[in-house]
Design goal:
By secondary structure, the chain is mainly β. The protein contains no helices and twelve strands. β9 and β10 (67-68) form a beta hairpin. The two termini are 21 Å apart.
Length: 81
């Protein structure tokens, strides 16, 4: 986690060791970060109220429906809300 990050008390983080935050990242109320795969959020970015970032899915083209872990990369100075 970078410097001067602000995380709301109501966020839900699953698998936190797969999350990296740049400096001055703000995570708002009731945000869900489901980090089955890596989630990277760049400096100065805001992820606001009730956003849901899910770095996990299933391969719909495979009849076994295996779990996938695609990364989520958000650049600097973005707003997700």
């Amino acid at each position: 986690m970078g410097r001067d990050c602000r995380l709301a008390r109501s966020i839900d983080i699953l698998i936190p060791w797969n999350i990296s935050l740049g400096d001055r990242v703000h995570i708002g109320e009731h945000v869900i970060l489901y980090a089955l795969g890596p989630i990277s959020i760049g400096s100065g970015t805001v992820v606001d109220v009730r956003a849901h970032l899910c770095a996990g899915s299933h391969d719909m083209h495979d009849t076994r429906f295996p779990l996938t872990r695609p990364p989520i990369t958000i650049g600097e100075d973005c707003f997700i809300g």
